[in-house]
Amino acid sequence: MRVEVLMAWPGRFESVRVELPGDSRVADALDAAGMRQVESVCAYAVFGTVASLDTPVQDGDRVELLRPLQADPKDARRRRAERRSKAG
């Protein structure tokens, strides 16, 4: 089966497609892609759904390496709204 392993940073991303046996898990996909030891990863997901290293993967899945948020989304939204109200 084919699985895509994806890691994104601001302004760029790295994507690796790997071939795995049918009983593979997230950890196997990371190992095959050479992304098991990537720093700053706080969690994993399969198509946006949080997953563990033991989560089974299926043909066509996208395994995502998740980084910690750099800003609280509520605070960022509040700051944008304040800037817009001052500009208008």
TrEMBL record:
UniProt cross-references to Gene3D superfamilies, sorted A to Z: RnfH-like
Chain ranges passing through the membrane: none
One Pfam family this sequence matches: Ub-RnfH
Domain of life, per lineage: Bacteria
InterPro entries: Mopterin_synth/thiamin_S_b, RnfH, RnfH_sf
Disordered as annotated region, ranges: 64-88
Biased composition (Basic residues): 76-88
PANTHER family per the UniProt record, alphabetical: UPF0125 PROTEIN RATB
Family: Belongs to the UPF0125 (RnfH) family.
Name this polypeptide is given: UPF0125 protein EPA99_05210
Lineage: Bacteria, Pseudomonadati, Pseudomonadota, Gammaproteobacteria, Lysobacterales
